[in-house]
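Hi P.,

Sorry for the delay on this. The queue was packed all week, but I finally got your sequence through. Input first:
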Amino acid sequence: MKCIQNVLPAFFASAALVAAVAWHPAAQAQAKPAAGPIVNLTDPCPIKAENWRGRAFYEILFMFRQPNGGGIGNYFNSLSNALPAPNDEMDARFRALKAETLKKEFGGDGIFFNGPRRWVANSLTASSWDGCKQRVIGTIPFNLDGTFEVPSFDKFVSGPPVAYKPLVSKRDSRMIFNAGETVYELITPEGAVYTMFSLSLKVDPKNTVENLPTLGKRLTLPTGWKFRSRKLDKEMVLTATADSNPPNTVVLDQLEGNYQYNAGAK
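Then the structure:
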């Protein structure tokens, strides 16, 4: 994510390919963000997640209120980091985290918990920051993935995020879907195709990769929108470039699933 300072809410996850980190007081100390948002990101590093479809990951946004009522902050993500326990146990640990506790311990005016989540693409290559140094929060190893800016601090931290509205997501990434895989897509009234790359269990804990075949029946789409699934006859790659013009966009469904604009799909 070469430049990840989003002007609208747009959820994305990436992380470093690293070994598992056990819970340790010294590791916990590394988790503490700066006293304010890290806007000028430094020390970019390549990241890679292979064979990740269906695996758990988590994201935490430490947000700071701005004088104009907006918000800006750091976001930390666990994608591709080895987790110390099975998915269900890690989901429980993530849900047990408390915003007020994290604000006191690590800083920030508000906390947004993005997840638990499951990755839907098969593999990912992208960029992270701070040399991919891990921060362990509640036994979960996170990486600094960027800064995040929203027009309204209060609306963002109280959630839920807006659904079925294209949102800007400035990042560098390459997501791979294997041949033979089934992909799930939203189609706007104008015919733009958005392909799902991650899903959330925050709203519906049963919204897993295994249950994606029934997703179309569970979504309530706005007028003119369509949902479809299709099986790939060859590998498909979704790319995003931080400085692309027009910028890369993403869409969320009402279950907080993430879909990226797919220029190659019709």
